[in-house]
Every structure is written in structure tokens, then in C-alpha cells.
Amino acid sequence: MEAPPAFSVERSSAKQHINMGMSEALPSSLPVLPTPLEETYPKLSDSQSTFTEKELRAKPYTHSSHLTSSGAVGHMFSSSPGYSTDLHHSSFSSHEKHPRSTHFISQSLSNMASLPLSYSTNSGPVPSTTSTLYSNGNSVSWPTDPLPTFLDFPANTSIDNIQVESSACNIVATEEYSKRNDWHEWADQLISDDDPLTSNWNDLLADNIQDLEPKVSKSSSQVPMQSQSHQPLPASSGEYHVSVAPSSSANSAPAKPRMRWTPELHEAFVEAVNQLGGSERATPKGVLKLMKVEGLTIYHVKSHLQKYRTARYRPESSEGAAEKKLSSIEEMSSLDLKTGIEITEALRLQMEVQKRLHEQLEIQRNLQLRIEEQGRYLQMMFEKQCKSGIETFKASSSAIESPSGVSSDAMKDSTAKTESETVKVDRCKSGPDQTNGSTKVEERPSEVGEKQEAPGSLASENPEKHANEESDPAPKRRRTEE
Amino acid sequence: MKFGKRLKQQIQESLPEWRDKYLSYKELKKLVRLLSSTPPTLLNGSSLEQFAKNEAEFMCLLNTQIDKFNAFFVEKEEDFIIRHMEVQQRIKRVIDLWGPNGSHPSEADYKEEMAKIRKAIVDFHGEMVLLVNYSNINYTGLAKILKKYDKRTGGLLRLPFIQKVLEQPFFTTDLISKLVRECESIIDAVFPAEEEAERAKEAKEAITVAGEGIFRNTVAALLTMQEMRKGSSTQSPFSLPPLNFPDSDFIQSIHLNAAVPIV
């Protein structure tokens, strides 16, 4: 079940499995970047430059989702510029996002035009508050928050607990804009927590810079990507590869992007390792060179190799020990588990339960997806109706000169977009419409609920809109309401 | 509060290293409570500032959670990919070495190794399923929190935010599910043919104790899931239908008879 492409592109910068790539709005963000690319990291005294830097650093990563090894489809999700970007974009990631938070707030508090907040100084693109969805402008503004959150990774591994999380957020929430510089030190602290890595920083960094540059420039020429929305990227990323500045906090970013392995990629890895003489003899660098996978860094290979070695060792030694531990406890509790047959039967039972759980989980997940899709469809319908309603209003008052002329154009554009989206969603909807009775029951209340959830301002217009609905969606809706 | 309790139970029953990777549901709920319920348009001055701060903190925590899930999930996924291949190779090695057509056929060794492998592979399967469960329960928690947030502040965070969540690595469990199914077929191949029905039944009855570890966790997970889906007080368009297992009593009996406390 896939989200209507146009719609999701509007929102997301990069997805992994679905591979939608950067949002088409992204290029529009480029002109926004005021500061020169070479500006190195250090004093985050300006939100703009921070933003720039993050964008810079992130670019190589989102980019590295272009993998070209034959058959090996690894999903780079250091597109954590991609994914959590979208999350962060309207919100507050752990550091200096005050300007961003204002944007988020303006969105969620539907139509708060001007926020008299003390720390709203970012002159970056202000999201259109008319839209309850995250507008393009918004999602583009901060395509890359997650770099600070990368620093959370070491924290996560060593100190991961609620207190750290909320205190981190507390720190940010309560500190003023100017205290961003502290982050720099804090980031260093977090980095130093992760001992095995610190010793390799220079190594990794050197490798990364070398690897990233050619890779990025190479991938810029590889435009035939999995999706069309990647295209805007290559052009821009080429400029940004120099952004990997050799400063201490930048260390965390290039070395830490999350990589999502796949079985195919792993197979390629194993082959490379075997060619090099086995897991003990193979070196990360060698494996990396052999694999020839775009976007794969030595850091990824290193950690993967480590895991691989542990896994190989395990069946022979410690896994056996772990099993014995578990089985001895089981023996204590049940003296019946003696014969081989009974053990097998116990395992069968275990399998049954596990299978059942898995089945239910899959069903549950599908339901959840469908529910959300339904909700989104309805939301779009409302938006569309709302906009067309406003448009007709404007048309009727076109005699009056107003700056709203511009905004109505924008609305027309978005209406056109939503229309094409709704067409696609209609098609998607016809899918769920054909499902069995149980989900139908769900869809029906979901519509009712969705109407209730609509913003207060629209609520009164709902009955009107229902009457005005176009013939296409209307019968469908009535059908499901039966 | 029901979800919070269930989540806590789940966490307690889960594998030790997973326990702090779950959603910090309580924390998030606290933050939502802190948010004032007067619409922000009516706030001004310091209370607006306070609201903004609280909200920012909430968002921050929310995003940290997501990062946490993603990091853990992806790492586990990587482990599973490796183990999946390893298990297959291990089986192959054993068959090639001690199997009937192997280089050193030895029925005793073969049987012993295969027994070990069977146990390992079933646990492996279980762990993967638990990861999917992890993903799902965290998603559910997030959805609930967002719903609470929207209810409290009259905001519209839920819908767009959840769309983003749907695309997150931790929620896209397709690969893991695929591995699970492959694992199941391997298991079918590795397990001896189904014994006589009576014997099997007998053995099953003897085993009413779910030992520590994976099995117990999966049973707990299944039960929790069932409980959570029993029917909520706030049935909404976004609720899932109730879940009913035909032999839920049986599963319940497994769970309740567990004598081994989780350390």
C-alpha cells in the first residue's frame, strides 16, 4: 500500500524503502542558503549558518542512497536527513531549534499568524499557516536536522534512558537561543562517551572525506534513480561535498549515518569477505573496496564486520552457552522436558505461538496503515473543498484589489495538486473499498470521526461541502457509509 | 492508563536489553498534561511562552523517541540479516559434515547438532517476531500520545505526524517479516515430520510452562495485544477492531503457568 507519490513527496525528504528521494521542493531551498558553503562548523551563532551546515553535511548522505552495485539494493538511511528530517522539520530536535519550534507551533495552532515569542528570529521560510499539513516551505527549510540527533546515538547506546532524553529536551527548551554554543561541547562529550570510535575518528574522517567526494560526484551523474524525485538532488549535492569539515563535532555526522542493510547487500559483503580470506583476515577497507557499493562508508563496513565476526563465533561457542543457560532454567521448571520428542514438541508449540503473533502483527499493521490512509484522504478532501470554497469566494470578490491575488494563485496551484492527489487517492481508496466487512466498519466510523476532527473553522462548512461535493468522491463516500 | 500499564507489562516481560528502547509513554503523557488546554490563540505573554516551551519539549522528546526506535530497530535488523544467513550456513555445514550423505556421517552428532539448531532457529524466529511486535507497540503508543496531544491542545499534530512515522525505518517491518517467513520454511525443513497426533497432544499437555526467554515473551506479547484490542473506552475511527483468538484460553494457560520469574 503506497502513499500517493505526489502527496508524499510534498512531505518527505527521503524515504528508504519507497525511495522517493528528496522532495521536489528541496531545490527551492537552495537559494535560501545565505552562507557560503565553505563556512566551517564551529560557532553556531547564526541559525542560518547552522541550518546551512546541517544541510551541507546532510546532503552527502541523502545522496548516498544511490547504490549501484548490481543487485545489491542497500538503503542508505542516513537519510536520516531523510526521515527524521521530516519529523524534525517542524519541530525541535535536541539543539537550537527554537526558530523551528516557532514554525511548528504556528502550524499546529492553526493560523497563529504572528507569534510573540522571544526567540523567533529566523527569517527563513515561514510555513503557510493556512495549511494544516506541513507545507513544502516548511519541509524544505530544515531538511537535515538529524545531525544533532546523530549525537544522540552514542548517548543512546551508553546512557539511553528517559532522563537523558527529557533532560536533553529540557536543556534545549529552557536555554536561550544564544546558548547554542554549549551544544558544541555537549556533542563532544557525547562523542567521547563512545570510546571505540573516538580513536578512529581521524581515520574514518579521512576515509570519509575521500570516499564521499568521489562518491557524491559520481552519484550526481547517476540520475536514473529509483524515483524521479531524486533528480533535483544530484545537481545540488555536487556543490556540497566539501562541507564535510574536519571539526570535532562534524566527526559524528559523517561517521554515524544510519545504514540499513539488506540481505542482498549482506550477501555481497560475505562474498567480499570470503574473497579476502575469511572474516578474520578481511579488513574493512578491503571489503569496502571489493564491494564497490556507492555510499557505503568504511564505518558501516567496520561495524558490520564486527557483528559478522561475533555471529560466526557464536554458534560455536557462546550461543551454545546461552542456549544451555536457557535450557537449564527450563529444566528446573519442568521436569518433563527430557526426551527429544518432547523438546521438539515444545519447540513446535513455541513456533505456533510465534507464528500467530507474527500473523496478528502483520494484520494489525495493515489495518493501521489503512486507517491512516483513510484519514489522510479525508483530510485532503476537506482541504480541497476548503480551498475551492475560498476560491469561489475570492472570485466573487475579484473586483476588490487585494494582495490575496498572489495567495489565490498559490491556492490554485495547491488545489490542482490536491486534485491530482485526490484522483490518485481515489484510486487507492477503491482498493480499501473492496475489502471485507470488518474493515468497512472501520472505514465508516473513520469518516465520521474525521469530520469531527476537522478544524473548528471548517466544521461549520462541512455540511455545505457535502452538498457541493463532486460526483466522483461523493458516491464513493456514500457507498462506504452504507 | 490501560495502555501505559500494558506497555509496562510488555517491557517487563521483554528481553533485558530491549527494555529501555521502548516508548517513554509516561513521560510523554506527563508533558501533554503540562500543556495548557486553553487555545494558544487566547494566550499571551508569558503563558504563551510557557506553552511554546512545553510544546517544544514535547516535540523534542517525541523525536528523540523516534530516533531511538530507528536506531535500535535498524541495528537489530542488521543482526538478524546476518544471523539469518548464518543459520542457513550452519545447517548446511552440519548436513554436509554429519548428515547421511556427508563427509563424516554420524547420526548421533547430526541429531545433537540439529536439535541445537532447531532450538536456535526457533528462538531466532521468536526474536524477529518480537522485533515486529516492538515496532508495532511503539507505533500504537505514538498514535495514542498524538491523539492525546490533539485532544488537549486542539492542535492538528496527529495526522501529519503519523504519516511521517509510517515511513520511518522502525515501522517498515517488511524485511523482517520476510525473514520470518523464510525462517519458517527453514524450520519446516529442519523439523522432523509431524509425529502421531496423540503423542503430540500428550507432549503438549505436559508442557504448560513457558520457560524464560523468547517463548515467554512472545506469549506475553500475544496476550498483551489481545488485551489492548479488547475494545477501548474511546473507540474512534482510528481504533483497531477487537482481537479474538479461538483458543485464547490455551495461550492464557501457558502464560499463567509460567513458574520462572524473569530476572
UniProtKB/TrEMBL annotation, chain A:
Family annotation (SUPFAM superfamilies): Homeodomain-like
Pfam family, one: Myb_DNA-binding
Compositionally biased tracts (Low complexity): 242-255
Subcellular location, principal: nucleus
Sequence ranges of Basic and acidic residues compositional bias: 410-430, 440-453, 462-482
Biological processes annotated in GO: regulation of gene expression
InterPro entries found in the cross-reference section: Homeodomain-like_sf, Myb_CC_LHEQLE, Myb_dom, Myb_dom_plants, PHR1-like, SANT/Myb
Domain HTH myb-type, first and last residues per copy: 253-313
Localization per record: Nucleus
Region described as Disordered: 214-256, 396-482
Keywords: Coiled coil, Nucleus, Transcription, Transcription regulation
Biased composition (Polar residues): 217-231, 396-407
Cellular compartments per GO CC: nucleus
Family affiliation: Belongs to the MYB-CC family.
Name the UniProt record assigns to this protein: HTH myb-type domain-containing protein
Organism: Flemingia macrophylla
UniProtKB/TrEMBL annotation, chain B:
Pfam hit, one: SPX
All residue ranges annotated as the SPX domain in the record: 1-163
GO biological process, one term: cellular response to stress
Annotated InterPro entries: SPX_dom, SPX_prot
Protein name stated in the entry: SPX domain-containing protein
Organism, scientific name: Flemingia macrophylla
Organism ancestry: Eukaryota, Viridiplantae, Streptophyta, Embryophyta, Tracheophyta
